[in-house]
Amino acid sequence: MHSEIKKVEFPNLSIITIPATQDNFMYLIVDKTSGEATVVDPVEPQRVLQVVNQEQVTLKSVLTTHHHWDHAGGNQKLVDLSVNENGNRLEVYGGDTRIEALTKPVAQGDIIQKPAVFTGDTLFIAGCGRFFEGTPPQMYDALITKLSSLPDDTLVFCGHEYTVSNLKFALSVEPDNQDVVNKLTWAENQRAGKKPTVPSTIAEEKRINPFMRVNLPSLQQRVGASDSINCMGTEEYCLTVPVRHFMSPVFLLNFILGGTI
Ligand SMILES: [Zn+2]
C-alpha cells in the first residue's frame, strides 16, 4: 500500500481514505447514525470490502468521479460481490454514461451539502490534472469558477497522491510563497511516514495551488502570461506540471456530502 488508511471524523459521518494502485485514493463515507456507507472510486473492490467488514457498516452505494479505469474500473466487480441475499444491488452514481455499472446519473451542481468534495483527477492538492481531455478555459471554469466558489472550509479529497511533486512545481512558479514552503515540508514528512496528504481545504488550495492562483498578476508575469486563462495554457504550466495523469473537465463531477447520503 502506498499510504496508510486514514479516518477523518465528523459529527455525523466519517471519511476513510483507502489507498489503491500506485497512487490512487478510494474513500469510504460512513453515516454514523445509520451505519450505512458509500464508496468513492472503488478501483480495488476487495480492499474496499475488507474495510467495510472491519468497520461493520453496510455498503449502499458507489460514487464515481469519472470514467477512467483507475476510478471506475472496479464498479462492476464491487456490485457483483456486494449483491446480498435479497438481491439488492448497490446504486452507482456518476456524471457520465461511460462509467461502469452506472445506475444513477447525476448532473453537475447536484450538490448535496458540504463539507467535502471528491475531485477525482481534476483538482489535486496543490495541482491539477493534465489538459489532455480539456482546454485551459475548461480548466479555468472547473478550478476558478466552480471549485474556488465552494465554502472555504470544504475538504478536498482528490484521486491521487501527487502532493509533493505538485508543491515542487508550485515553488518553481512562486518561490516566495511561504505557505507552499511550509506545506512542502509537511507533505514530505507525511510521505516519509507513508501517511496520506489528503484532505486539504478549498481555503488552503487558494493559498498553495498555482492553478487556483492564476488570477494573480505576479504569477502571470512570472510565466509570461497576459491573463488568467492564458496562464493556465502557458508551456510552463501545461508541460512541466509533474503530474502523470489526465484531467477530464468535461466530465467533472463533484460530490459534496452532508450527514446523509
Ligand atoms: Zn486518476
From TrEMBL:
GO terms for biological process: methylglyoxal catabolic process to D-lactate via S-lactoyl-glutathione. Pfam families: HAGH_C, Lactamase_B. It catalyses: an S-(2-hydroxyacyl)glutathione + H2O = a 2-hydroxy carboxylate + glutathione + H(+). The keyword Cell cycle does not apply. Residues 23-160 form the Metallo-beta-lactamase domain. InterPro entries: Clx_II_MBL (IPR035680), HAGH_C (IPR032282), Hydroxyacylglutathione_Hdrlase (IPR017782), Metallo-B-lactamas (IPR001279). This is Metallo-beta-lactamase domain-containing protein.
